[in-house]
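It is worth pausing here to work through a concrete case rather than discussing structure prediction in the abstract. The textbook approach is simple: state the sequence, then state the predicted structure, then interpret. We follow exactly that order.
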Amino acid sequence: MISFTLLLLFFTREGDVKKIDIVYTFLFHIPLIVGITIYWIGLKFFRKRGIQYAVLSAFFSLIIILALYPISFKLIGAWLFPDYFLIASYDWTEMGGIGLIYIVISSLLFIAEQWRDQQSELIKLAQLEEEAKKAELKALRSQINPHFLFNSLNLIYSEAIKKSDQSPVLILKLSDMLRYALEKAEKERVNLQDEVNYIADYIDLQTARMNNPAHVVFHTTGNFDDYEIAPLLLLNFVENSFVHSDLSDRPEIQIEISIENGILDFTCSNKKRDQLSPKKNGVGLGIQNSKRRLDLTYPDKYSLQIKDSDGRYFVQLKIELT
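Step two, the predicted structure:
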């Protein structure tokens, strides 16, 4: 439509558009339309074959335009508009130049269409990847509650066997922690202070049955209220330090959480028991869970260092929360 309008104005000689001008412009466009259509089909068919096929399609289309140009006026024009005497006034070099311009414009339009389609596919792919990421994060978070619940119930069971007065207190604390987990686990981010409080409750739950609770040191530094973090992300590391330790002796567990300039610094270390039973040695799943969540939630924004020596187990995690 743009081409027809522009050429109609170009072919109009006397200022006012007349029927003969419309007829001439129509006949002039027949070879262009046929040639460009063939070229477009060739581009669609050979788009994955290489640039040489695109050049071959352009050359063939240009030949079609040159061949149809005189036919359009001598045969089609005489058949459709017998009352007009119309001639092909451009020679083959001029018409070839015009045809080449149309081929170049068509090529640019084709490239633009392919780029648009490619961007649309990239957007769809990104959306699918984001949906898959959210689904995987949801699955990883769902693994936390049963794991934590299993260990905590074992703790309360051991206290109940001894008919300890701590059992009701521990059950109430566990209830509060499960309520927090149920409310926060499905969220993408939670208040960092709430998460630190949750870890503090977990530590209290664990130290309640220890012979030497003073050997567990939990220290925090900084203002946590201004930041958010993925829920239950640090719990696996804290839980792992207790699982690795001999809680009946001197576990020497040290847990520190600090925040400065938006950088969360979490360190956790413990004295390892002499020999881990196969059952207790299966804590690797929780650590792998945390690593995967970190990769998905904080890509290129965290560093994780784990040292597992003969005597101590050490974890340092830094996350950029801003």
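Step three, interpretation. The longest strand covers residues 263-271. The chain has two domains: 2-132, 143-320.
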